[in-house]
Design a protein that fits this description.
This protein is an alpha+beta fold and 121 residues long. It has one domain: Histidine kinase-like ATPase, C-terminal domain (Heat Shock Protein 90). The chain is 38% helix and 26% strand. A hairpin with a 2-residue loop joins β3 (92-98) and β4 (101-109). The relative contact order is 0.21.
Amino acid sequence: MAKGRDFTRQALVDWGWDGTETSEDVLLLVSELLTNAALHAGGCVELVVSAGEDLRIEVFDGTTTLPRRHPSPQRGLPGGHGLYIVERLSDRWGTRTHENGKAVWAEIDASRLTSGRPTSR
């Protein structure tokens, strides 16, 4: 997970989208998607972070089993919260299957990454 977060953090810096509250949300999204792939799909095969009009995170794994939200995660107890976090922090998310597995993706509107930037002193 650390390598995925570091990769994403550097991409945000390169694109000028670092230093905002939303950039921290992006890093948490990456962590959640990578953790879900590790726990439920045998691990991440590929992490793709792309910037166009919006920021898109895709985590590819080797299984076609689609993720399911835990029906009733317990507050204060670990487990079952990942997809709720993804849903809450992203503007859009979903899955797509392909012949070798699936991708779970999340998108954040670029406007959220450019607003609220800290002021330099």
